[in-house]
Write a structure and sequence with these properties.
Chain lengths: 111, 114
């Protein structure tokens, strides 16, 4: 099956710092999503980005499908950005909607 | 905005009980999914459904069943709950389409089996 690897596994930042999270995947995909899971367990949809670049406030994401990776940028981090960030993909040959999740990056933003 | 609602945020049940977890979405999505999330194991797909009365096994279906009698509602059933089914359960929905469609998640149910 398709492999999804996220790096780094853990990240500690001071408030105001910038960071880049990476997601590598081992096969062609037709769906890639970035999620933020907050401390209460809620999984928030950040980006649906199978290719290209999107921005939403302090967050932006870029997927280079031909090279099988995606990046999530967090600028001017805030304590509310803390939590776990997941990348999830659907294999291009699937057409079932089944997402495969990476293991996540745990981010802690200190005041 | 898409709204996916899970019936309970926290649930405590006893070993051997039959447990129902309910999920409702309000966007007329064809696809619905049940995942469980465990520390160190990430999110794993239990079952999914792409239409009323249709279901497909995910990666870890053992010990679970599902029901989809109406398009908006997808139920996960633990036939005889066991302690190893203590977990966080997440429901999701998406449109059915070629080329992949974004999934939207509910708030999750933390289930404890005693």
């Amino acid at each position: 099956g398709i492999q999804v690897e996220q790096s780094p596994p853990d990240l500690i930042l001071q408030e105001g710092a910038n960071s880049t999270l990476r997601c590598n995947f081992s096969d062609s995909v037709n769906n890639l999503q970035w999620f933020h899971q907050n401390p209460w367990g809620q999984l928030i949809n950040l980006f649906y980005i199978p290719s290209g670049t999107k921005q939403n406030g302090r967050l932006s994401a870029t997927t280079v499908a031909t090279e099988r990776y995606s990046l999530l940028y967090i600028s001017s981090s805030q304590t509310t950005d803390s939590g776990v960030y997941f990348c999830a993909v659907e294999r291009a040959s699937s057409n079932t909607g089944k997402l495969i999740f990476g293991q996540g990056t745990t981010l802690q933003v200190k005041p | 905005d898409v709204k996916v609602t899970q019936s309970s945020r926290y649930l405590v049940k006893r070993t051997g009980e039959k447990v129902f977890l309910e999920c409702v979405q309000d966007m007329d999505h064809e696809n619905m999914f049940w995942y469980r999330q465990d520390p160190g194991l990430g999110l794993r797909l239990i079952y999914f459904s792409y239409d009323v009365k249709m279901k497909e096994k995910g990666d870890i279906p053992e010990g679970y069943s599902v029901s989809r009698e109406k398009k908006e509602r997808f139920s996960l059933i633990l036939e005889s709950a066991s302690t190893n089914q203590t977990s966080m359960y997440l429901c999701a929905s998406s449109l059915l389409g070629t080329g992949g469609m974004p999934q939207h998640f509910g708030d999750g149910t933390r289930l404890s089996i005693l």
